[in-house]
Amino acid sequence: MTRASPPGIVIAAPASGHGKTVFTLALLRGLVRDGIAVSSAKAGPDYIDPRFHAAASGRSCLNLDCWAMRPATIDAATAALGRDADLVVCEGVMGLFDGADGERASTADLAELLGWPVILVVDARAQGASAAAVVRGFASHRPGLPLAGVVFNRVSGDRHAEILRAATAASVPEVPVLGCIPRDPALALPERHLGLVQAAEHADLDRFLDRAADIVAAHVDIERLRGLARRGRSFPVDDRPSPAIPPLGQRIAVAEDRAFQFAYPLVLDGWRKAGAEIGTFSPLAGEAPDTRADAVYLPGGYPELHAGTLAHACGFLEGLRRAAAAGAILFGECGGYMVLGRGLVDADGRRHAMADLLPLETSFADRRLHLGYREAALAQDTPLGRKGARFRGHEFHYARTVAEGPGDALFGCTDARQRDLGAFGLVAGRVMGSFLHLIDRAAQP
């Protein structure tokens, strides 16, 4: 069975920091208030922005990733986004043409694949007519990529807006200026080392979203923007697609709170569709995984910010140890992997004892950035698959590994340029983990 892509637009920018996330959130909230059934997507590997999307739209946001996802996974996600939606708004990642070296992994690649037009958000606070040259360059850089409109952000006043509109009309008349958003401190969101402070940590997020929607609605032609959305290509839809990651068990306990937020909805939905029962628990509240669970999933997040609380969450840590002793599968990714280890040193140099189920010590006292796409092959048979089974995902953390092992490695990894990165992660019986965030199985060669 084939299905046409739902009507959609892609919100992109020349680079990070131009304001595309806040614009996307304001657009989503405004459309919902106008009675439009809108769903959203986020390009690339990102856990934080999709939570803001969900808060703005009231619907789960799905990631779409040209590098890390198989075509069938992208097709299934696109079909899910279009279900009961009048419009899909997809936020890009980094700059429009930025992506993994030598791979089709950029926002532009995703827009071409989906057949959705691009709206460019340009920070114009330090530019006048020169901003039109930026728009012209992006419009002509890749022939055939539909750059359907531009929104100028952080505009200083009416005269500045007039200059931007006139210069764009003269230089690149085929790209309409959809609006000029003024500089306003009300449109700022706080950040930390992995991106924005998480949506769940904003006590007044709804008020922020409503204010942002009011500002954007007053300065952007939303009706014209909506009219630019287009249906994309037709694609096959598998009614029973294989899950992105094999289910860890039949009844899976998933850690979920402010310390463990980085789980992809597509992974969890895939487990449910494969017949697994998913239940959540809060380590920060001292909760243990369900004793009936045959698998426990500790996704990434910010355990380093809550290390003291986790170290004293006896119910949680003892629950992990009981689950391991009972033969349950325990799988940790990034922050979850660190918590399965022996100890975690926070940014102030204090060591906090963790679950002691893997021979791992990590530290944030001397932070080191680890960032990039990864292709991982299982180094041995595990509940994730047979030895050699390949996955794609990403690594993004600032932890330094003080000690890792001795023990058996979980993966052998390469980066996006196929450079060998060696062994990743550890396996001890049915307990396993690594710093990788898995996104999908790798496509068959």
Could you describe the 3D structure shown?
- This protein has helices spanning 20-33, 48-57, 71-82, 107-114, 130-141, 158-171, 205-219, 222-227, 265-273, 307-311, 314-325, 335-340; strands at residues 2-4, 8-12, 38-43, 62-64, 87-91, 118-123, 147-155, 177-182, 191-192, 195-196, 234-236, 251-255, 277-281, 295-298, 329-333, 343-345, 351-353, 360-363, 370-378, 390-397, 400-404, 411-415, 420-424, 426-428, 431-434, 437-441.
- It is globular.
- α1 (20-33) packs parallel to α2 (48-57) and α5 (130-141) crosses α6.
- The protein is built from 12 helices and 26 strands.
- The mean pLDDT is 93.
- It is α/β, with parallel strands linked by helices and 445 residues long.
Report on the biggest sheet. 7 strands, parallel
- Separate helix tally: 12
- What separation lies between the terminal Cα atoms? 25 Å
Based on secondary structure, the structural category is alpha/beta
Which residues form runs of ≥5 with pLDDT under 50? none
CATH evolutionary superfamily of the largest domain: P-loop containing nucleotide triphosphate hydrolases
Cα radius of gyration in angstroms: 23 Å
* CATH architecture classification name of the largest domain: 3-Layer(aba) Sandwich
Mean pLDDT: 93
How many strands in all?
Answer: 26
Number of domains: 2
CATH topology of the largest domain: Rossmann fold
Portion in strands: 25-35%
CATH class annotation of the largest domain: Alpha Beta
Strand order of the largest sheet: 4-3-5-2-6-7-8
Q: Helical content, roughly?
A: 25-40%
Shape: globular
